[in-house]
Amino acid sequence: xxxxxxxRIRRAAAWLGICVVLALVFxxxxxxxxxxxxxxxxWACF
Length: 46
Prior knowledge:
This protein is mainly alpha-helical and about 45 residues long. About 85% of the residues lie in helices and about 0% in strands.
């Protein structure tokens, strides 16, 4: 029973982490200056 709880907690923590990362990425898309800088840096690699 205890191992099931640990598994559920780890799984919930993993999903929470994924959701936080996605929220941060989507928040960056609302900043056009950041996106221009990011694309310029990516383009400079080629």
